[in-house]
Amino acid sequence: MAVLAGAYWRLLYGVDLTDEAYYTAAPLRLVLGARPFIDETTPAQLTTGLLLYPVVAAYHAVFGVHAIVLFGRHLHLVFSCIVGMCVYLGVRPFVRTSSEAFIPSLLPIAFVPFSLPDVSYDTLGSGLLVAGAFLGLRFLGTRRFAFLAAAGFAHGLAVFVYPPLVLPASAFAVTVGLMRREEWRRVVAVYGIPALVPLAVLGGVFVNAGIHHVVDVYADARRFHGQGGGVGKAVSVLADVALLALRSPLVITGLAVLVILRRIRPAIAYWAAACLPLLVLLRVDPRAESGPMDYVVVYGLCALPLAFFAGKEAPERAVFLAVWPSAFVGGLATAWTSNNGSINFGAGFAAAPIVTTVLLACFCDRGRQFAVFAAGATTVLFLLVMQFTFIYREDSFTSLRSRISGGPYAGMYTTAERKTFLDTIAADLRRLSPRGCGILFYDEFPAGYLLSSSRPHTNAVFESLVTGASLPAYRRVLLQYYRANGLPDIVVRMTSVPGFAVTMPVSNRDPLDRLVTRSGRYALLAARRDYAIYGRSTARCPATRRSTPLRGTSQ
User: Fold this and answer.
1) Measured between alpha carbons, how far is 299 from 379 in angstroms, rounded to an integer?
2) How confident is the model at residue 537 (pLDDT cuts 50, 70, 90)?
3) Is the dihedral of CA 69, 75, 81, 84 positive or negative?
4) Which of 53, 284, 364, 441 is the most buried (most CB within 10 A)?
């Protein structure tokens, strides 16, 4: 209950106007009628948005956008609890007591990639990968094929929301098939057929949108946003993970001491094992963006040496063999395809620290029951605390004291400055961009589509900040969309976004800037410190008729 209370409390704090806003704006855009891969072309959250469509549509029909971001966070917590239940089911047949299965089941609640507790491609993809792996483990422990079918379906959904996860899903199928060699054909069929159901739906979405559109969308994501890569990137990710492990001297020393003590003083070795999570914590920076991700990677890698402590017939060895290899492939897949690179390894590797916790619990269980609790509980505690020590693109937790009472972020706490910004831009949008207008926000401000009642008129709710020689080509994709669908009535150009530590001055090299600020097609309606609002002089949108622009700060 304490872990649930802490996780729920964390939902209320921190307002991110970039990535988390995108997680909500993408499915909402589909609910408002956008065609996937045609009207909405940012691929990361697009298939996740399709999966969330029924839930978001139902919420929007009843409540509009009021508190919709907090609603998404509640969905995340419920989903994490379901993943935790799957972990418990998978681990229970392989451990002696229920507590040894219960504590690892809390890890999916305590660990949140990038400390962003929302339903995103990272959290859903990672969670479904974990759920499927431990449902498959339940099959190995009970020989009930219904759990293997559920594992296949969960992994099919994981691939639906995060297509590169087809790699760890395939690795898991191969692993389970090898562990059940005598009936591998049945294993492949029972796992594979349910997995193909979500993939068939995804294939239908691709065909409906047009394969050429889908190919263009993913090609642009790689070209402009650094998603995906070649062999060189995969090697770089492996090198980064190896360096992260080798630069953990306390952890390496702790494992070496554990090996020695296990031979000469087993009673002390149990307590040394219980201290391993603390040694991992001392290796990472809990206040950094990479803190929880690095913790998961280093702690998950500890399963490798711990697996050697288990005998060939020990039940926990099956846990390692069934789950850990596919988790490692999952880490490679998420790091290789993400523009974040190796920092994203932890998202796909999320099942590995659960394996480490199980191995530690089984090791300690041979000597001291309390050490079992200490080994698992400290890991859960550290990951939960790191949700508070780092809050994505926000100030420190202690500074988040201003509660938002209305709009998409209702019920959430942020800084006084960010609340003032949200109040100001929301008021400007109510005056200048009514419901009948089409609107564009750029760059790095998907939150605008949640704050405005106007319909999004863009090919992507997340217009990213692209610099250098790629900028004209990147803008050309959007301008081609406007040639086919007409220009937006209202354009909001961001100069800076609270929490995003980059200023974005008007550039002569930016074709969109030239269109909006210099072509004469748009008139300035409001000028604030962080943004400017423009309206088309020929549009029917009433707000564009304002002759004197609003001026002032947004703070």
Assistant:
1) 9
2) low
3) negative
4) 441
Q: CA 266 to CA 258: how far, in whole Å?
A: 9
What span, in angstroms and rounded, lies between the C-alpha atoms of 76 and 127? 10
Residue 342 corresponds to which tokens in the numbers above?
A: 């190796």
- pLDDT band with cut points at 50, 70 and 90 for residue 62: very high
Query: Which residues, 6+ apart, have CB-to-CB distance to 92 below 8 Å?
Result: 98, 101, 138, 141
Pull the structure tokens for residue 429.
Answer: 């949008």
What is the Cα–Cα distance from 555 to 425, expressed in whole angstroms?
10
Integer angstrom CA distances of residue 418 from 228, 317, 491, 528: 34, 50, 21, 14
Under 8 Å between Cβ of 380 and 281: no
399-427 average pLDDT score: 96
**Cβ pair 194, 149 in contact under 8 A:** yes
**Could you give the CA distance from residue 192 to residue 389 in angstroms, rounded to a whole number?**
41
Which of the listed ranges 229-243, 260-274, 304-318, 415-429 does the model predict with the highest average pLDDT?
415-429
Identity at 343, one-letter amino acid code = I
Amino acid at 195: A
Region 320-346: mean pLDDT is 93
What does the alpha-carbon distance between residue 489 and residue 477 come to, in Å, rounded to a whole number?
Answer: 19
Q: Which DSSP letter does residue 404 get?
A: P
Q: What is the DSSP string of 278-327?
A: HHHHHHS-TTSTTHHHHHHHHHHHTHHHHHHHS-TT-HHHHHHHHHHHHH
Give how far the C-alpha of residue 12 lies from the chain's centroid of Cα atoms, to the nearest Å. Answer: 18
CA dihedral defined by 383, 387, 390, 395, rounded to 10 degrees? -160
What's the CA dihedral at 431, 435, 436, 440 to 10 degrees? 80
SS3 532: strand
| 106 close to 7: Cβ distance less than 8 angstroms | no
Reduced 3-state DSSP string for 156-190: HHHHHHCHHHHHHHHHHHHHHHHHCHHHHHHHHHH
What would the two tokens of residue 51 be? 């999966």
Residues in the chain: 555
Residue 253 to residue 300: CA distance in whole angstroms = 16
Q: What is the pLDDT of residue 262?
A: 73
Q: How far apart are the first and last CA of the chain?
A: 39
Residue 112 has a pLDDT of 94
Task: Please give the Cα distance from 382 to 361 (Å, whole number).
Answer: 17
Q: Which residues contact 554 (CB under 8 A, 6 or more apart)?
A: 420, 421, 424, 425, 528, 529, 530, 531
Beta bridge partners of 493: 442, 532
